[in-house]
Design a protein that fits this description.
It is built from eleven helices and ten strands. It has about 325 residues and is an alpha/beta fold. It starts with 6 loop residues before the first strand and ends with a helix.
Length: about 325
Amino acid sequence: MSTSKTNSYKIAVVPGDGIGREVMDATLDVLNTLDIDFEYVYGEAGDECLEKNGTALPNETLDMIRDSDACLFGAAGETAADVIVKIRQEMKMFANLRPVKAYPNTNSLFNNIDFMIVRENTEGMYIADEESYTDEGAIARRIITRKAEERIIRYAFEYAKQNNKTKVTAVHKANVLKKTDGLFKEIFYEVAKDYPDIATEDFYVDATAMYLITQPESFEVVVTTNLFGDILSDEGAGLVGGLGLIPSANIGEEGALFEPVHGSAPDIAGQNKANPIAMMLSSIMMLRYLGENTAADKFEAAILKVLNDANTLTGDLGGSASTTELAEAVKNNL
């Protein structure tokens, strides 16, 4: 007896370059087993798109993402800045979420790591406002605005509140960047007054880099500016076994995009060797964004069982399974 699926969503799918296609196919294969009706619309972006169409991000792809409930993105190569950064800016995706979580059998340095980095996505150093070269070198502008920083800091506190987290840590360099990061720190403690049940602390970014190594279990939610968040996210990935296990979300006023942090890995592209777990975890973040928490819990539990069993792991995790074999194992656990 067949049953109709409950909820329906239009999902923009942009596989991108290299292993993006393989990890995307594996993830969609698992998503299709859930009791949810997904309508997939496909778009091009990335290096191959640039070579084929003369642009790395066609307007058609951007419009498609804008008209969808959410977007799944695979990987971009050399054109990543022209694709991901532009999508974030065009769709005002102000919050970048990067969970750092230890899973079994993943070469994680610690077993009890589970925190979220909430990174401001629209300003700071990544506005890419660089002057032309001068006789002395080159100059770049760093912009911090009250509106954008208050928005991301409040988002971090709301995330903590909704996910039963008890502490938010602000990361900055206000001792040197007295005006820009001084403003960030000031806003952080202003917003914190609205959340008296959540503990607060702030550290300089260099100290935070050390604390992530010496006491990573003490972090729950970390909120910071664009460049610092980018750097600390990759350090976090190193703590829990590498970029192949780190998902991310870009949340904004006009939509949301979910992508693994890893790149296009051209050295193994097309060989069915790539680890699809980061892409799968990104799709789980998408499910939670859509309010499909039960399905997200089931999907994550299935991945956890594959990792615990350690019988179907890809090469980066010490196994010999292919991308599709790992996906099949996750499906079987569902």
